[in-house]
Amino acid sequence: MDTEPQRIAFMLTEQFSMIAFTAAIEPLRLANRAAGATLYAWQLYSADGISAEASNGVRVNVDLAFGKARSIDAVVVCSGVDVQTFDHRTLAAVLRRLTKFGAAAGAVCTGAYVLAKAGLLDGYRSTIHWENRPGMQADFPELEIVEDLFEIDRDRFTCAGGVAAADMMLSLIRRDHGPAIAAAVTDQLIHHRIREASERQRIELRTRLGIADPKLRKVVALMQRSLERPLTMPDLAASVAISTRQLERLFWTHLGYPPSRHYLKLRLEHASQLLRQTTMPILEIAMASGFNSASYFSQSYGEYFGNSPTTERKAAAA
After folding, report:
1. Among 306, 262, 312, which residue's Cα sits nearest to residue 286?
2. What is the pTM assigned to this prediction?
């Protein structure tokens, strides 16, 4: 076995996701243990070269500052909440330099946003946490951002965050060192199996909303796919071959409110994500969430969230 270790730099931004970071690094440690050799070696980096604070408040000591990274095989950006509000220019320059000299570039959780800011996802498929996908797609409309659990596209690898980072790293270990090592690591993690990249990020509607009725699940899924151009209640009912009255009864029976309220809830939550994660004008956000009237959007937003879109945008900026 070739024991020349693969050198990996973990770039920790402020407020990085601790669970995604540990889920990415632990499989590497266990791979070394399973192989009885150093397959992977890593160092941690931060902006100041001293430490970085995770979103859970835990501060992690690092080895070096971003700009000190040299002679590595892969770089992994670990980010988390409010990734779009931080200044990533220094890190972006370092990432461009490292990839220019042959390093693969990866990211966990919202780290894909930093790769995109550095121009390193142009022409690549990528993914990001489901909550951040609308904002990233709005800021980088030319990129192909998929909804998969993780995405490995040549020398770029990104994942949705959380424990999906473990699945991505296990897939990379399997690719680089074979299924036996990957299976041994999976067992050590008590992970049962390596999930496929194409598996969904979010739990099924049946579990998330407690919906057992297949027609109701289909309608809710259709609502989620048509937020910018909302469908009428008759169209939604026709999609599952029932009447509008039957559709109303389904929602009242299983969710306790009418379909129009659920549809509005989905659109307002989508708008809230765009307000917090992008710099899109509020009118554009309203239209992207299916509102043709700015006044109706503001009124609906205030009634649902208790504050106006402008207040939400200012709070996010602060």
Report:
1. 312
2. 0.74
